[in-house]
Structure formats: C-alpha cells, structure tokens
Amino acid sequence: MFSPEMWNGLLDSLQRRTGLLTQHVLLNHKSMPRAGTDYAWTVQPGAQHLDIKNFKACFGEFDVLHDNEDYIQYLESICLDLLFIITQRIKSGQMHVGDISNLTVGCSDRTASFPVLDDLRRITTIMHPPPQAQHSITTTNTLYMSKSQLTPGGPHEESQHP
Amino acid sequence: MKSPNTPSPSQHSTGLLVQHERFKHEHKPQEGKDYAWEVMDDGHSHLDIQNFSACFGNPAFIPVLTDLDYIQYMESMCLDLLYIITQRINTGRLRAEDLQRIRITCSDPLVLPRYFEDLNTITRIVHLPTQAH
Questions:
Q1: Quick check: A131 and B105 CB within 8 A?
Q2: Which residues, 6+ apart, have CB-to-CB distance to B111 below 8 Å?
Q3: Separation CA B6–CA A133 (nearest Å)
Q4: What's the rounded Cα separation, in Å, for the pair B26 and A87?
Q5: Domain assignment of residue A148, yes or no
C-alpha cells in the first residue's frame, strides 16, 4: 500500500512527467472520443477543421449540472477534452502546434449545449492589448516582446519541432 | 439542494482543477495585484490579467521545447483561468450565469499574444447547423 507521502510523491512525479492532461485521460476517458465517429478532422492546404459530431461522446453529459462549481468543472472538462483530441492528433504526427493558427473548430451536433460553448469561448478569449490600451500600443509597440525573445526555441520555431 | 453526500454527477469527468491548484499554484495569483476584477454598474464583469507570469507561469522559465510541451502549457492556461474564476465563485461574488457577461483582457505588456490567440482558436467552437442535416 502507498503511504500518503508515497502517493503524493507518485502524483507529483506523474504531474512533472506528463501533465494533468494525461491524468485526465487516465482517470476520465474510459470511453475515448473516437476520430471519425465522435469527431472528424478535415485537412486542406493551409486549413484544419475539427468537427465535433457527438457532443456528449466528446465532452460528457451536460444536462445533469447542479450548481456553480459543477458548471465550472464541466467547462474545465471540455477544455481538457478538446486538448485531448488535439493531443492525439499531434502525437500521431498529423498536426504540429504551428497548425493551431490555421485551425477552426465546429460542432455539427444539434443536441449540443451552445450556451456552454459560448461561455467556454468567453472565458478563454483574452483580449490583448485591452481596448483602452490599443492606441498607446500602436505608438509604442516596442513594449511588446516577441515570443522568440521570451522563449528561445519555442514551439512556433519550425526548426524546434521534434 | 444537493446533499453533501450526493456525488456530483460531473465528478466522474472533472476535478483536476483541484490537483492543478495543489501542484502548480504554490504562488497563487493575487487579486488586486496579479489580476483585477471589476464589476460594472450594468452587472458586467471585467477580469484584467495584470501579471501574465503570476497568473499563467512564466513561459521563459518553462521548457517549451516540443509540441506536447506547448499543448501542456495551453492546458495549464485553461486551468489557471478557471482557477481565478473559481475563486470568484467560491467567495460568492460570481455565479455561473454571470459568465454570459464577462470580458477578459490582459494589460501586461510582457505577454505572448500568440498564446492567447492559440488558446482562443482551440476553444472557439462554432455551431455548424447546416452540416447537421
């Protein structure tokens, strides 16, 4: 049996190695969303499109939420499920993170909860710079460091792709 | 009212935010310092990220070397945002329905706009009713 200290150490080690997404997959994805059945991926030159065909198969039930915290946890789960689908694509070599800028995500499942999707979009849309700062930024855009300045060898530098 | 002993129906598919807090938030983002939350007269909420690194972790110190590292950073950003929102909900100052009237900005000049763009691209799910026929 694991002692609490050993268990915490194991979790910590797992987290450091793999991240929470892997834990999410291990713990929650007994029924994985299936490419072609639950979602479809279309690739055209310069464009990638992910279509959620079965909302519940991809994101789980949404009509059984009781309170505010349940709802936030459901949004959390959707985020991780989306990233799970994208991770599968990346792991199989069919996508690079540079392709994210050419990605569109749609949902053709008529039974989907669109208020939920709206809320998800709203809380992950971070406007930068904020509207009131736009004028000063256009005149002093040297304030903004480029990604390469902050993360040399970052993922958008194609040469760094494994 | 849900009984405390009644398992949350969403518990089976969620709950990693708590683990995320435990592992990653040794230095929790502080309201008023790292981010500001303002409630307008009309009920709209405005969350402004004032310190990107304090809220999401400093990308300069994270070994973002591979595609999977980058996806993990996206994952972490999602959970960090939800962490901030959860703190607001836990203190009774925000309800789930208030999310319909929320606006999020980042006034920190030392930021990586590409990260925000990618996060938004991944999570912006557009309804496609015409393809459902």
A1: yes
A2: A128, A144, B49, B52
A3: 47
A4: 27
A5: no
Residue B74 resides in a domain: yes
Determine, yes or no, domain membership for B133.
no
* B81/chain A closest Cα distance in angstroms: 8
One-character DSSP codes across B29-95: PPBTTTEEEEE-TTS-EEEEES-HHHHH--GGGS---SHHHHHHHHHHHHHHHHHHHHHHHHTTS--
CA distance A74 to A68: 10
Tokens 């009984």 sit at which residue?
B3
Pairing mode, if any, of strands A126-127 and B102-106? parallel
pLDDT in tens, A11-59: 444 444 445 555 555 555 556 788 999 999 999 999 999 999 999 888 8
Name every chain B residue with its beta carbon within 8 A of the beta carbon of A156: 114
Number of domains in chain A: 1
* C-alpha span between B30 and A140 (Å, rounded): 28
Chain B residues touching A12 at Cβ < 8 A: 23
- Tally the domains of chain B: 1
Is the pTM higher than 0.80? The answer reads no
- Cβ-defined contact of B121 to A145 (cutoff 8 Å): no
- Residue A24, min C-alpha distance to chain B (Å): 7
Complex-level ipTM = 0.78
